[in-house]
Amino acid sequence: MRAFSLLAASLVVLAAAAFTPSSAERLHVIRPGDTLWDLSSRYYSNPLMWDTILSANPDAQVFNLRPGNTLVIPYVSSSPSLSVGGTYTTAGLTSSQALLSRLQLETTGMVSEIPTNVSGYIVETNTDEDDEFGDEVALPGDALAIDIGQDQGVEIGKVYRILEVGEEVRHPETGDHMGNVIRVAGVCRVVQTAATTSQAILEHAYLWVEAGQILVPYTSYAPVFVSGEDVVDGLEAYVVAFQDEDALKAYAFDVIYIDRGSNDGLKPGDLFNMYQYGEEMRSPSGEMVETPDICISELVILDATQETAAAMIYTSSSPDLIEIGDRIHLVRQQR
Description:
By secondary structure, the chain is mainly beta.
């Protein structure tokens, strides 16, 4: 999975005690595309336990997750459910506490036209000579040459978000052009300026960071709070794209993009359901009845543009995974 294949590069390692291997631990040989997020999901059924793996490997090259290296996967007696800061139930989120980490929010991305607030572009990367990916890909700590400088008001310490323009998105029903998937590749900070160019250091990398990617001013995301009122006449939306460009279906904790946005009144924290729709059947009494719709997935809005929104799947109780073109329904909305 290319998306977020460098997620570990964005994480800050806290001071950790030496890890003593135990008989219950497992060893994992890193494969291309592995991330701490995915390994946490695989071994603990909870992606938010990535720091457990990180703490168990203080001397490993986890920031690069290079294929062929080995990670220790420590044993834990139990894996806590995804916490919302309060009560969590499969019937819906009920907490008024913040739902997601800043990292999750800042890597959400969006379906839209190319941003209008583009400041500049990466023109060159400068990785280590012995880096296996060559000079075309930057890793955290590498220097980037960017095409804006003092003449454009760039100052030392200025921080930019790095965006990658992905595939075109068309509406699954109408075929209308909706824009492109805009993915967050990383974050960089300016360390040296000249008249028309600057040098920046890549501080976080969530995707491959390459020449030609867009720079936009960095802004911090506000926390997402889940509290709202039930919606009687729910708004329908279509799934139009996935954050992971290689995915054919979306799993729990994946981010998807939908065809409704702030113009439709959507805000971060709004909740949608996906249903297995009921069908008309004949009852034993001979009457025709409609079986109830069954909720099989629940989603929370993370961010919204005027016409689209990004949502995270936070429960999935059916093997019928979400696909592009599926319909979802608004069930709770912020007031």
